[in-house]
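Batch job 17 of 40 flagged for manual review because the log was empty.
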Amino acid sequence: MQIFQYFTNKQQRQRRKSMHLEIEEAGFGSNITFVVSDGFNKREITLPKFQVSDFQIDQIRDRAGFWFDCDQAIQDIKQTLGIWN
């Protein structure tokens, strides 16, 4: 299992809470899990690996700096992956 961790701060000057993104891949061709936390809340979404491209993972990493809470982060991840519910 590979775990990638990304730490982001939306506005470091205002010392807002920092968002934490983990991307967990469990084996070749199985599942990928996106875990978002802000120190108090934690949300995650798990998908089959074949539904997620490397380009989409890069887009999610790049957009992580603009999240301000876990709900908005999961909504943005779903939008990036083309999940509209």
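Reviewer: the log was empty due to a logging misconfiguration, but the result itself is present. The beta strands are 2-8, 19-26, 31-37, 42-48. Unflagging and moving on to job 18.
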